[in-house]
Amino acid sequence: MFTAAREEICLKKICIIAPVHQYNDVRVFQKEAKALSMNGFNVTIIAKSNKESKIDGIKIIPVQNYKNRLERILLQPLFLYKALSLKCDIYHIHNPETIFLGFILKIFGKKVIYDTHEDFSKRVLIKNWIPKPLRKPLASFIKLMEYLASYIFDMCIVTQKEILSRMGSKSIIIENAPIAKGDLINKAYEISETKPREAEVFRLIYVGGISKARGILEIIKSLELVNKYINVRLWLIGPSGRGSILEEASLLEGWKYVDYLGPLRQEEAFSYMIQANIGIVTILNVGDHSQTSPNKLYEYMTFKLPFIASDFNLWKEKIMQVKSGFFVNPKSINEISDKIIWLLTNQEESRQMGINGYNYVMRKYNWDIESKKLLEIYRRIS
């Protein structure tokens, strides 16, 4: 009986539609697509890519190149055509702008799973490119669409309790738990081995989006204070996006202690984490930041890095008991710099913090554990 069920699952074709994301996005490809593929599903991803390809058994179909957000919206019919032409059994769509595609897919009798990574109804309230008079109406519209999706689609996946509370019964939280082992981690260590080890300099690392809301200016200002006592440099990794703050940041005194590496492939970014001394993610309390899962902290913990993080109540509730880092007021340059200095001058305690975090990720909270929820959803609706 089990073999027959397994063979039936193996025949299921899955199409993941994520036109905003790069094909190798960590949640889309490294976590969800790989978990499904390794468990017998035939997976295709429609996402940003230079060419059609097949990687680790997963087919990649590139979306049509678009120059701006409006053009991306106008290309929705093409994304739909590509998706329907695959004749898949289940369509897994990502983020609010694909909801209309999902509604049409349901009209065609397809099974649809909606997956939202963030609370976009709050994110739009802090987007500078959206005219202020339109932000609140757009936020309400997103909430309405997601509410309808939670009743019309076969399942909805969210990452926050607050989003779950306004969705229907066919909704579940799947956390963005870190990848703790496997090819991605092995590649990161291989790349790290090729990098020269720096002497007489401590390394702080930040990986993620680069903007004022992410607290980047405060981090850079803290470097100026720290370097009065200890030689510290920052690896700054990630996209700066529209309205880049890099020009403003480069005018700060602390910028001379920054090595900006731009956006990197995940394994490359991880290789820098391996060599760093402290991981930092002191994002400001705007939008839905205080309700997000502290994903980056878990990644730092995976590589035994003690961290300095924003003192959001949710974050502290989740991992303060692990004793793997410090929580600070993200706007306080003095608090940030004080904790950097403490971690670098108390190295035995810092090392133990790193070990505490590593043990927590390996034993209690990682994608191998969290992915079981995803597989259960697919087995239930297949």
TrEMBL record:
<dbReference type="InterPro" id="IPR001296">
    <property type="entry name" value="Glyco_trans_1"/>
</dbReference>
<feature type="domain" description="Glycosyl transferase family 1">
    <location>
        <begin position="199"/>
        <end position="359"/>
    </location>
</feature>
<feature type="domain" description="Glycosyltransferase subfamily 4-like N-terminal">
    <location>
        <begin position="28"/>
        <end position="163"/>
    </location>
</feature>
<dbReference type="Pfam" id="PF13439">
    <property type="entry name" value="Glyco_transf_4"/>
</dbReference>
<dbReference type="Pfam" id="PF00534">
    <property type="entry name" value="Glycos_transf_1"/>
</dbReference>
<dbReference type="InterPro" id="IPR050194">
    <property type="entry name" value="Glycosyltransferase_grp1"/>
</dbReference>
<protein>
    <submittedName>
        <fullName>Glycosyl transferase family 1</fullName>
    </submittedName>
</protein>
<dbReference type="InterPro" id="IPR028098">
    <property type="entry name" value="Glyco_trans_4-like_N"/>
</dbReference>
<keyword id="KW-0808">Transferase</keyword>
<dbReference type="GO" id="GO:0016757">
    <property type="term" value="F:glycosyltransferase activity"/>
</dbReference>
